[in-house]
Specification:
With 677 residues, this protein is mainly α. Among the domains are: 27-115, Leucine-rich Repeat Variant (Alpha Horseshoe); 254-365, Leucine-rich Repeat Variant, CATH 1.25.10.10; 425-486 and 494-513, no CATH class; 526-567 and 591-675, Roll (C8orf32 fold), CATH 3.10.620. It has 36 helices and eight strands. It has a five-stranded antiparallel sheet with strand order 1-5-6-7-8, sandwiched between helices. The longest helix is centred in the C-terminal third of the chain and has 26 residues, at 463-488. The protein is elongated.
Amino acid sequence: MGKKVKKEVEPLPKDVFDPLLIESKTAATVVLMLSSPEEEVLAKACDALYKFASKGDENKVTLLGLGAVEHLYKLISHEDPIVRRNAIMVFGIMASNHDVKKLLRELDVTNSLISQLAPEAENRKILNEEEVEKCLINLLEIDNNEVKVAASQAISAMCENLASKRAFGLQGIPQLVQLLSSANEEVKEAAVTALANLTAASPSNARAVAEAEGIEPLVNTLNTQRDGAVANAATVLTNLAMQEPFRINIQSRGVMSVLAELLRSTNSQVQSKAAFAVAAFGCDADARTELRNAGGLQPLVELLHSKNEEVQRNVCWAVMVCASDELTAVELCRLGALDILEEINLSTGRKNNFSEAALQKLLDNNLSQKYSQMGYLSPSNIITDGFYDYGQIKRGVKFLSLEELSMQELTDRRAIIFINAKPQEDVLAVEEKAQDSSYEQTILSPSISRKSSREKAGSMVSPMEEKQELSGQRSSLSKSSTREKGLRKGKGKKEEEKMKEVTQIISKVQDEINLENSHWLPPPDFILLDYINDASKAILPLTTTQEQVVALAQFVADKMGGPIERDKLHDFSWELHISEIEFELKCNIVPIGKVKKGTFYHRALLFKVIADRIGIGCSLVRGKYNRAWNEVKLVDDSPQGIAGLLLPPQEYIVDLMFEPGFLMKQGSAEADQYKHI
């Protein structure tokens, strides 16, 4: 046999590091190992730290000072299950220390830990089958705060199991509600967190909270100093608000005023939950009023700047809900909500469905600004009293209120056309109660009211106009006087008593006018009111929408200077006419009823105003160079021989200038010619 040759060991590749066994005798070195990219090193380091922390409280404090908690926080979501398990074990042993527990709250470790329970849906099922709920409910009554906290946290985790959630709803909710009155803030926070999880998507559990008289302590919890308790209390109240009786109950306790303060919190979780609650309660008009009066709109608008995605989304939703009435929508726009939302929607990263909906809702309930910025009002955008055509404004330019505009001196800028066909309530009150036979007494109340309106509006109506308006109202007032004479017969009331009553009413109106800091109101446009009344009588009886559209177009053109020949449009001196009105009123604001020579945009606005009042659907579109037009949708007659065939509606442009009432199909050459110079 030949001699055996010793086999040579192949050398390791040059790019491989030779294994190095390290024996560490200090905790600081092991903490540094928590940053290793090697899973085996991480697992062993966590195991060593677990043994070290379990030896005593001093060791936990040492690890806290070495920054171990921050490193471990990253490892509880590590992809390796052994690393993840060992890191959570270290957290579990260290969490018994108060300082560690405080840091864990700041890092919001709870949500990360709970997410690790997801693979254990089976564990919850086993616990439910063993009726662990009864055990946890009994623990809530143990006279030990740490036990109560632990039991509440366990209930929160068990809520992932629907059977457990139902079991706690039947038995545990009253005990948790009682804990809301605990003097221990940690107990209170743990209890309200459990209630938040129990009432989520569970109307029956929400009802159980209300029946356990939990509403008052929940509202009180909003005033605590712990952000977690505040955020979860807001969540529970939001869950209860899904049922109207509970929402009304909560709202009656001034919850909107409290939420207004919470919106000023620096904690993003509180901001988010408070905004969510505002959206839940803001569907009620009284709640929106309370929020406005409490100064809650300003912090709500400021939170639109939040970089936190959840906060911004919830705030957008709250703004959308709160913008349901014109008063709140206008105030939100004044505070800058519109500009911020436009900026958000221009960003692909920040834009979301709620921001787009909030912007649309703001504009739909602030039509003056919508028309000024967008140049378009849809058939569903109904023009109401108080609307004014400010003209087109550029992005970033402040949109002034009618009151602010009324304070400006007369300028050569484009006149602001405003709509106010509603007589002031004090005018009607005096007219209805006067019931006097003399013409002077019948006309006295509107005269005084108009004078009062002029005083408020800064002499918007001249003495000449007052004389003209009174003359124009003579016939209708005379009829009213005659009718009142008939009503007066047989009533047996002395004339002296009636005069005394009239004097008292007029005095009351005058006193209200003279109140300091009174809100400015534009004077009523009686001419426009007559237009609407006359149009209603003449147009509503017509049988088809097309006939109504044509008749209204002719009506509007007649009130604004009649038809104009195309080649003589430049001779139609409407600018001079408007300037004369402004000079007469000493103001840039012009009631549309005073415009007797109107061009495209005056006529289109008047058409839209009257159409909205009598139920004709139409759009208002602003073009360039003082052009504007109305779009209507009409259904053509069915072709002969095909009875009952419903054709899709066709869109038409309504001619109000050249051939009033002529309907031009959208997209046709004649329609394009009407819209452009």
